[in-house]
Amino acid sequence: TSAVLGLTFGEMQNNEKCINFLKEVMKEVQTIAKLEGVRNTHNMIDDAFKLFYKMSYDGKTSMLQDVEAGRKTEVDIFGGTIIELGEKHNIQTPYNRILKELLDIIDQKNCSR
Question: What is d(CA 111, CA 100) in angstroms, rounded to the nearest whole number?
Fold first, then answer.
């Protein structure tokens, strides 16, 4: 999300619409994690947000840093895996899918330079 929107941790933390979007992305991951046998998935979103709110206001995700530097992102490892696992379990992953598509476009632009 940060890599697509170009937002720092603080900018995301202070944006209610962004927080809601992040929660939807995480719900997809949580659902798939449960099906894949990951334990303690019931509190994984709350735990992730506890860490998220401890991040430096001006800090940037590694994927945003990759985009800004013109490097290929790791979207295939993260979003791509969730999409594949969603297909395996017949679970829709619209939030992860759109993020992956947008980052693929950004990667194609950056790699064609």
Answer: 16
